[in-house]
Every structure is written in C-alpha cells, then in structure tokens.
User: Fold this.
Amino acid sequence: MKGPYRGSFTALPTPFRDGAVDFAALQRLVDFQLENGTDGLVAAGSTGEGVTLAPHERLAVIEFCVGAARGRAPVIAGVGSSDTRVACELARAATRTGAHGLLVSTPAYNKPQQRGMVAHFGAVARASTLPVVLYNIPGRTGVDLLPATVATISSEHANVVAIKEAGTTLARVKELVALGTIDVLLGEDSWIADGIPLGAVGVIGVASNVVPALVKALVQDLLRGNTRQAPAHVERLAPLVAALFVEPNPAPLKHALAAMGLCRNELRLPLVPVESATAERLQSALRVAGVTLA
Assistant:
C-alpha cells in the first residue's frame, strides 16, 4: 500500500430537509456507517451532490462529518471542481476542518488535456499536505484520466496516494495496479469481487450506505484472500447494486435510505426522485439484501 486507505469506504449522500442540509439525518447516516464497521467516509463527493452544494454548505458538511465521526474512521473530503482555483481553495478549507484526506475528481465539462490534468491535480496536491485520492469518473466528467498521467502525477507529488477508478473497465484497474506507484480504490460496487483480486485495496462505494456490514464483509474477505464466502455475499448484494444505478446516483440511494428511515427522499435539482418502476425494483432488492425497512 502507498497510502492509508484500505477497505470499505462509503460515499455519503447529503440529506436535505426543505432545501437545506439536514444535519440531524447526516448524523444518523454517519452513526449507521460506523456502528456497522465501515472503514472510512467520503463527504460531499458525487454521491453527496457536491456540485449543487454552495461552497459554505460543502465545507459545513465536511466539517460536520469530521465531528460526527469523532475519530472513529477517516473522513475524506470531496473537493473536486472544474475550476482549479476553486478546487485548491476547497482543499485548503477542508484541511482546516480536520478532514483526513481529499478526493479530487477530474474537471467536468471543460475537458482538459492530459497535461492540463497533471497541472490541475498538481496544484491541488500542493494546496494541502493531506493525502490526495484522484477520482476518475469519465461517465460524469467527460474526460478520462489515463494511467500514464496518473503515473506522472503520483511520481511528482508524494501526497497523491490513491485513485478512485470508476466507469472505465477492470482492465484499467489492472493497468493502474501495475503502475506500482499508487493504491487503487474501486469506484464501482459491481467490481468488488473481481477488482480486489486484481490488486485494488478497497472500494469507495454507494451500496455500503444501505448494507455497510455486508460490503465490509465482502471486501475484508477478499483482501484476506478468503474467497469462500464471496459468492454468497455477491449474490445478496448484486440486485441492490444494479437497482441503485438504474437512475443517476444518488436518486435511487436516497429512495432506499428514506425507506429505511434514515433520511428524507429529497434531492437538489436537476436531480429528481426515481420513477415508480425503479422504486419497486429497489424494494425487491432491499428485501433480497435483508434490509429492514421503516
């Protein structure tokens, strides 16, 4: 391992009540995760609707999660932005909140060249001494952070310790592991069973919001090389993972968490609640996973 992050990390949603951040619900979500053994938390990332949080809200969410965790697990702050200056300022501010690390996504929409991403991530890495996790999610950002670029960034900045790889292929995971310069965290729940045997050291996932103990058990078994129980874990988990991504994340997730009584089913536009067919599929998947509903 090159960095401190290993195991099952949960990308938390940001709960809302009447348009504002619902901090009481956020406390419930953090407690639910840590009571069920989750190894770490990500605040204000993609699942946390970070792009529709005002900067002061984003930092308030990060700071609240740090306080709510009370040192029980590391909190990684989502500080991605399409404007490098904003990402750097968020990185500096997140550092002051007591966050353990930074999750920095590739810039969306403006589609920088690979050398532009070297400069972007380098600037953010220099803005803080915290461990940095790169985040490649081309399906959302429109740009792909290539392995050669990852190698350049990680070789130039010692605090760039990991990459969350999402939405390309398992072959890409294998390429990144082969670099030997950076830890690989899976950004797709459906890759856990195959990605960890390839050398990934964990997952930053969505399904663990709903079934944290189940995801933790699967990840830890695979990290220890104990594959005997993995098929049973995957069988319980697979319908839920599929249902959580029928519509854009975190809309299905918030529906599921509302059904569990953990937060309201409220999103910020342009996201809207799921269709009735997705809701029915989620209900079925929750039953298969053994989730108790409110």
About this structure: The chain has one domain: 7-225. Strands lie at 7-11, 16-17, 20-21, 40-43, 75-78, 101-105, 132-136, 160-165, 183-186, 202-205.
